[in-house]
Structure to design on (181 residues):
């Protein structure tokens, strides 16, 4: 099963690196919206994970952050709708510019009789291009705290515009809305 937050990170990076041209300016990409709806199939309160059975019979696993209020009120069989809006901006850093690694967030608890609410997170990090594989059309990045990520690049011309050692600032703005019926 795929984890929704991994999907968002991966899709954001793919979009960021499929840009037709790189310059020193920030490239803002269109908002990507992912909607997940279904029925709560299982809840692991210890690991804070929920499996949601979708209408097509497949399952999605959602990690529930520790700060989410009213998590204990969620029950197997509840119908849920989760909407993720993801905005990504990417910028090739000029040499010598300081690295960044910031994250901010906010959340609100649902005010109704059922649990739910909203959360927003902005994460900006500097990643270094660690490897470029033109045959596979992929780039491997390393970032803060041991973060390592390899991804297929949609637009292979990007591979001609970057080199191993280049630094890229990637900013994700994600907001999530959860409604429980």
């Amino acid at each position: 099963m795929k984890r929704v937050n991994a999907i968002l990170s991966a899709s954001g990076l793919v979009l960021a690196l499929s840009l037709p041209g790189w310059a020193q300016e920030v490239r803002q990409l269109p908002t990507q919206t992912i909607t997940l709806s279904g029925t709560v199939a299982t809840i692991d309160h210890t690991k804070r994970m929920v499996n949601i059975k979708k209408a097509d019979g497949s399952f999605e696993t959602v990690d529930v952050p520790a700060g989410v209020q009213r998590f204990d009120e969620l029950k197997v069989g509840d119908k849920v709708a989760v909407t993720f809006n993801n905005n990504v901006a990417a910028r090739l850093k000029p040499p010598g510019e300081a690295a960044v690694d910031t994250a901010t967030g906010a959340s609100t608890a649902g005010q109704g009789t059922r649990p739910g609410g909203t959360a927003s997170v902005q994460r900006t990090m500097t990643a270094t291009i660690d490897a470029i594989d033109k045959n596979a059309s992929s780039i491997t990045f390393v970032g803060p705290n041991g973060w390592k990520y390899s991804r297929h690049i949609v637009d292979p011309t990007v591979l001609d515009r970057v080199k191993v050692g280049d630094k890229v600032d990637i900013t994700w703005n994600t907001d999530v809305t959860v409604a429980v019926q």
User: Anything to note?
Assistant: The beta strands are 27-28, 32-44, 49-54, 59-63, 79-92, 101-109, 116-133, 138-142, 148-152, 167-180. Residues 22 and 161 are 7 Å apart (CA to CA). The radius of gyration is 18 Å.
